[in-house]
Amino acid sequence: MKALSIQDLSKQYKSGVQALKSINFEVDQGDFFALLGPNGAGKTTAIGILTSLVNKTSGSVKVFGHDIDNALSLAKACLGVVPQEVNLNLFDKCINTLVNQAGFYGIPRDEAKKRAKYYLEQMGLWEKRNSNARDLSGGMKRRLMVARSLVNQPKLLLLDEPTAGVDIETRRMMWRFLRELNQQGTTIILTTHYLEEAEQLCDRIAIIDEGQIIENDSMLNVLKKLKKEVFILNVNQSLTKAPIIEGYETSLKSPQEIEVSILQSQGINEVFAQLDTLGIRVISMRNKTGRLEELFIDLTNNPPKETAE
Amino acid sequence: MSPQMISMFALMRKETSRVLRIWVQTLIPPGITMSLYFIIFGTLIGKRIGEMDGYPYMEYIAPGLIMMSVITNSYGNVVGSFFNAKIQRHIEEMLVSPMDETSIVIGYLAGGIIRGLFVATVVSFIALFFTELNIKYPLLALLVIIMTASVFSLAGLINAIFAKKFDDIAVIPSFVLAPLTYLGGVFYTVSLLPEFWQTVSRLNPILYMVNSMRYSVLGTSDIEIMDGLLMISGFFILLLSVAVYLLKKGIGIRD
Asked: Using CA atoms, how far apart are residues B94 and B11, in angstroms rounded to an integer?
């Protein structure tokens, strides 16, 4: 059974905007699935339909086999959701936010209190349990929303840009936590603008643009489609112009930094060999941008005709 | 207990504890407002009016003032709480959960009823400083308060469902609720009005609520008590059906 099965899903808002144009994709149980796309691509609309916050125009959605048209409550019971925008009751205590949410899922109060304590501790918020949500920092609010999404111990967790606006330390902490959760069997669907986040965490990926799925494959296969990568090489001497490396495009980023474009078919060893003969030693290197970011820009600027619907 | 019952009780608990948590906003203002009504209309002006329908004016208006507080506060409680949940978007906590629409309606209804009951108690206590309040039919009075609070909680909920901005939750209380309440026989018996306006007054649902309460307290009324109870019950069923239908359709809460 698939954790999520979406078929011919379309959404047209009253304003006439066609947010989703008959999209299809499936998510297997246990996947860590990235749903990527530029702003306004339809990611949040898709998440909204899954959680019944947005009414679909047509198509079908099944969550662990439960069709949202005729078994919505069963489908919802499988879901946890962290929305993009803060949607906390700002005047409620953190502990009450979780206990109430568990109550809405039909979890008895004693059990709800235990779970609230556990997930607040997991998110490093137990000390803040009696604080109102409005008194929390932006990062803490995000963590509170993650904790809230887990009180019903969902089989499928939907995270709509969960780390937007949080500091690096918090983001890494949340990454660790989400990895563990996924390893324990929770299926996770993540939308994010931090493509490094998707590359680090997810094993499958779908890219959505202008309401259509333009890529849907394993992370490994998607990254294989990357035609070229751009590396920045730090070298041991100051240069006045970019060295000529036969077969490669080079430019000088700064006196000690060379930018090299490398096609996937070429490999990188030849670059080191040629630089060595020029007496230039490479001290360190890094990607100019994330590999996924390169591909994302490539795909969303030039969607492949054969996959665009 | 079934999961649906648990979720309904969770919301009922949340909404009723909200009334007590912000008691300065929910219980004190109606106490102050009604004290002023008792002082001005009861003590200062009332003495010059003398009797109304055979009762001292202060005693005559007390049930109406209690009902007036119940109406405005149960309405205000639900319209405020639900609209805030919409604006802050924490209504999504309920919408993404498996709890059904009837449970959501009953949860908010509980908050409105509790506030109505508390306010009725506060205003009744204040009334004792100004007049005697020998309640003739206490259980009937309790029933009328609960039923009226239910009707106006549902009305507040429907207002909040449609409201898109803060103005939208102020318009109905100012332009509909207040005139209907003041013309609903709180301060006078409709028998004083010309026949035409008596007939018009009978189209006002608040007339039935105020007079049902007056009957419960004094034993006198402009309407038959059964007519009053039937009218309140009819409005309750109608508004309950509308509220559940709107939530099921997602009007005002789903895109």
From this structure: 9
The chain B residue lying nearest A74, using CA atoms, is B98
Residue of chain B nearest A57, judged by CA positions: B255
Chain B residues 105-144 with a CB less than 8 Å from chain A: none
Nearest beta carbon to residue A53 from set B13, B85, B95: B95
Same domain, A214 and A140: yes
3-state helix, strand, coil in chain B (%, to 5): 75, 0, 20
Are the Cβ atoms of A106 and B99 closer than 8 angstroms?
Answer: yes
User: Vertex A146, ends A140 and A149: CA angle to 5°?
Assistant: 140
pLDDT tens across B141-180, in order? 999 999 999 999 999 999 999 999 999 999 988 899 899 9
Q: Other C-beta atoms within 10 Å of A138: how many?
A: 13
In this structure, the answer to whether residues A57 and A168 fall within a common structural domain is yes
| Residues on chain A touching B1 (C-beta within 8 angstroms) | 108
CA nearest B91 in A: which residue? A87
Same domain for A98 and A32 = yes
Instruction: ipTM value, please give it.
Output: 0.89
* Domain interval for residue A29: 4-224
| Beta carbons of A103 and B10 less than 8 Å apart | yes
pLDDT tens per residue across span A43-88? 889 999 999 899 999 999 999 999 999 999 999 999 999 998 899 9
Mean pLDDT of chain A: 88
Q: What is the mean pLDDT of residues B184-188?
A: 89
